[in-house]
Amino acid sequence: MPMIYHETYIEAPIECVFDLARSIEVHIETVSNTNERAIAGTTSGLMELGDWVTWKATHLGVRQKLTSKITELERPYRFSDAMVKGAFHSFHHTHEFTESGSGTLMKDWFVYRAPFGVIGKLADKLFLERHMEKFLSTRAAELKRIAETQ
């Protein structure tokens, strides 16, 4: 299964970055290019252990829905979410936060499996992995901007 790793240093306290990363409103703001909206489950506020949300968004020109659930949460160091239903065969996204200097090091591990077997593996190599890397890095950069301007 492919894994995307991304790391961002944010000049803000760990508790602030942790809460921003699990905020529905901040998520929507950080991925505005996909027109992402929370349409079911937890649709506002901070995600907690066991919470789920259904997102409606446009990725790669395709309108789609995806439901994910918070499967692990250790405040303010780590939380994970996993796809329950959606376009991927599966995914697991771990967000980890470490105090570093006067700020926070945010690490993302996104492990996924594309749908459609061999065709999905080919799509992954041609464009899906690149798309997901850009999606995660753009979201992290926007989260950094928000955290550092508060």
UniProtKB/TrEMBL annotation:
The keyword Cell cycle applies. GO terms for biological process: cell division. This is Cell division protein. The keyword Cell division applies. CDD domains: SRPBCC_3 (cd07820). InterPro entries: Polyketide_cyclase/dehydratase, START-like_dom_sf. Keywords: Cell cycle, Cell division. Pfam families: Polyketide_cyc2. It comes from Planococcus rifietoensis.
